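ok so for the tutorial part 2 we go from a plain amino acid sequence to predicted structure tokens. step 1 is just haveing the sequence, like this:
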Amino acid sequence: MELISSSAQLAKNVQIFNDHAGEFAELIPYYRAWYGLRTKKGWILGPSKFIGYNITPEKYLQSQYSAERHGRVQREKDAAPLDGRVTEGVLKQWSELVEEGHPNYNDLRMTLSTLCGRYGKKPNTLARVSIIKSEGDRTTLPNLGDELVALMVGVYRKLTPAQKSAFRKQVA
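step 2 — the prediction. this is what the tokens look like for a chain of 172 residues:
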């Protein structure tokens, strides 16, 4: 499956997901990584496993799922499996994780609950939401009012890839 290669494709895919959300209703509780796009009407969300690929809703729904243990029907055996972990690696360059304390946290959680509730579903208990950054917003940190966090992020960005890996191992 072909991954997206631009933030424009990302925004388009979030819109496509929302236009076809009813077709994905049975899968909504299984999505863990959501990405929010601010529109004139408010926030719209899309799951990484769909929005990270150049794929139509029809092709997506025909793809393999490795979730028989969740009681879902396995799709076509010949179809390529999709992996949200792969898409998240691509999507992180255009997004910022929203954690509790972020100015948009409550709005995004409410938007996710509303989306799920529209189809009689609840969000996955491990669900997390990231904001899709606008082009001019690539280096902006959330205004959390915590100078120590901003300092740590600044230092982390200056580390080499090996140092970042060692840091992540110690933090986990």
